[in-house]
Design goal:
The complex is a heterodimer of chains A (about 300) and B (about 180). Chain A has ten helices and nine strands. In chain A, about 35% of the residues lie in helices and about 15% in strands. Chain A has a five-stranded parallel beta sheet. A four-stranded parallel beta sheet of chain A has the order 2-1-3-4, with helices on both faces. Chain B is of the alpha/beta class. Helix content of chain B is about 30%, strand content about 30%. Chain B is built from four helices and eight strands; from the N terminus they run βαβαββαβββαβ. Chain B has a five-stranded parallel beta sheet with strand order 3-2-4-5-6. In chain B, strands 1-8-7 form a three-stranded antiparallel beta sheet. Chain B is globular. Classes of the chains: A alpha/beta (about 300), B alpha/beta (about 180). At the A-B interface, helix 1 and helix 10 of A face helix 3 of B.
Amino acid sequence: MKFDKKDLLGIKDLSVNEINLILETAESFLEVSTRKIKKVPTLRGKTIINLFYEASTRTRTSFEIAAKRLSADTINISASTSSVVKGETLIDTARNLEAMNPDIIVIRHSASGAPHLLASLVRQSIINAGDGAHEHPTQALLDMMTIKEKKGKIAGLKIAIVGDIAHSRVARSNIYGLSKMGAHVTLAGPATMIPRHIEQMGVKVFTKMEDAIAGADVIMMLRIQLERQNQNIFPSLREYSQRYCLNRGNIGLAKKTAIVMHPGPLNRGVEISPDIADDPSRSVILDQVNKGVAVRMALLYLLGGGHE
Amino acid sequence: MTQNKSKTVMDKDGIDRCLTRIAYEILEKNKGIENLVLVGIRTGGVYLAERLQKKITAIEGTSIPLGILDITLYRDDISTAKKKPRLGKTKIPFSLDDKKVVLIDDVLFTGRTIRAAMDALIDFGRPKMIQLAVLIDRGHRELPIRADFVGKNLPSSLWEAVSVNLVEKNGMDEVVIKEEN
């Protein structure tokens, strides 16, 4: 099994074999980050551009650390300090970056499909670090890696995803990935946050959180995007947290061994109570971040250069 | 179409006798097992390292540490390779500082794997010395590298393939030399 894609645009395009190859490669990369010298010469002389049109701490840092541990040179561009503020279009920015001969461009953009547009325009490998409400493939891969490590498998597990499904690229990538890997995915959220016809993706949908997390092996809480409060999709944070906050009480409905995940950043007390988020017997939130570096090293390795 | 000529150059007993001799030679050269560690190169070298570890334990009565090294990330052709080779796990759960490290591989050929392995080891610490043990030395070096312990020198042409089959991965122990198409 070899990885022969030019880009990583979404989990939707990946086969089960490709997902397994990425996860196994990432498992091998975990060890590199535990060394005293956390660097291997593999991508020496390669240039990786992190092009972030949206705010990010975790993902951008994670990609940068991953690239540096592989000896690649990294350049970070954030929209607020670039020519974007002078009105340059994405296509023009991409063509200009291409002219400087990088090897991989990692892009985050608020428009769904922006990485796909880029991939069709430039010869470099494109990695989608989140596009609008569409996909966030590296997050889903690190989530799958965490589940696989904690549970020993993905197939057959009951996995509940709770929150604002409609605006969540993390949810969409995970639904694609987890379903492909044979998990049973249930969703819960207010009706205004559940996209219509989402059942067609092979998931069970509930409006009551308790129904979705009953008997679950994994509970994945999504961040409430506070910036959407004025879009009238939920009456108040207080009401939302009364119905959809994971806490000591409702977690008892899940399996005793159930793990809790969250893609970050946390809104403590809104979608997850602090005692759950900080409970080492339940929360694997920091494991997810740890796996993120290994997953991104695996992708940079698999895509890194050598393409025509 | 030409038939591939294949010849067995070493059988199960031959491999075992070579490893027994190498185990004694390692102990003789290092005057025992003090500060001695073994590191097998994935994949063939790992099985040979495990066997050498057992033999050394049997002789000395004490086990010595064994590490596993995947050299993929240190290959000199990795940045230009269109398809990346599958990455295996490296496990060296002990310090290499001031240790006498015996690197173990199945076949010594161009020497490029060993160059990569030495670079990797040095990223793990500062060994006192690195020695090399191989079951087969088939010649055709492209780098100034030689083995300290050799099971068998096997003169070969570049058109031949030498494979070390081991019970642990191929179900039987034998060394085969074969003409490639």
